[in-house]
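Reopening this one. Same input as before:
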Amino acid sequence: MAILHQRRPRLVVIGNGMAGIRTVEELLQLAPDLYDISVFGAEPYGNYNRIMLSLLLSGEKHADDIMLNVPEWYAAHGIALYAGDPVVAIDRVRRRVRSRAGVELAYDRLLIATGSQPVVLPVAGNDLPGVVCFRGIDDVERMVAASDTYQRAAVIGGGLLGIEAANGLSRRGMQVSLIHRSHVLLNQQLNADAAKLLGSNLQARGLTLRLDADTVSLYGRERVEGVALADGSRIDADLVVMAVGVRPDMALAQSSGIYCERGIVVDDTLQTYDPLVYAVGECVQHRKATFGLVAPAWEQARVCAAHLARFGHRRYRAGESATRLKVTGIDLYSAGDFIGGAGTEDLVLRDPRRSIYKRLVLRENRLVGAVLYGDAKDGGWYFELIQNGTDIAPWRDRLLFGRSYCQPSAAGSTGVAA
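Same output, byte for byte:
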């Protein structure tokens, strides 16, 4: 008598980036044989560490160094990988997806992890050759190719990506102007004092800073030739990098009728309004918040995987986030509410000779925010104190000097958060 084998349900993953594949990794640990898994990715590679793109640009890493999951990993886990073939349509009635190359697959569960799209300033000349964003390996390859041919670059945006791009191009030998709308570099992560130290460091590396500067257009004939600013000045450049932010990539979900606002709206289980469809990472909106850092994506992956594995006890709660700049020789870390306000007080350490600045923001003997420049080795510990709401009263007078002065026996047991 023939034995009938029941078909395993199929999980289709749209997006081969860090959030989607981290979810798959978590799922394989919890329920390795539950699903037949298929992954569609827009880029022609395995899964790579997007956080390390700045080190790829600066020449400190090679493409092979930043790969997280090579094609052989997918094969070893029985995962069908469609690299370089993004999904272009979702039919939720028939429960099918269709890729750009025409591959059609049915799904029982769908995971959308389409990430984000870089914001392109809506100015004249933004489509000229030589204008790039800083989002993937192909962008880095274009920047490296330009640095081999041209001398002058302009980077628009003084946030994390912009500073990392400017530093990387400078290390490649280009003359780089960094253009930022605010008078404070990294204004989402730093206060003015720390930003001044950062600016001085970047200028010492040969970068030209244009702060409080609004870009009104890009100019050039065959190729971009420079940036025009609102004050009437011009910055000549043969390469212009736009690093002015990202927005959730929700167009595919929207076109299939999945409810979206600023991102794909998900609940505490990372489920969309369609109970068969989940979403994680930079494409989602959870309780009005969207996400651009890796830590929330990892936690979303953990929660989503538990529900896909039918262990439905976990709930996603957005927590505090921490930021670290990935520029060799610049030690910078910020976390929590580092600006403060009514009801808060500051502990500040300044050591101009060694270019060290620390600012800790307290509320009722609880640490709520931290900015560290020049000495960030205790960043992970301060972040733990913020997350746990630890009462710091016993060592308040020593808190600025770090963990070893406050908890000598425990020092060194916790690494710094990335």
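So the earlier flakiness isn't reproducible anymore. For the record, The domain at 10-117+246-308 is CATH 3.50.50.60 (FAD/NAD(P)-binding domain).
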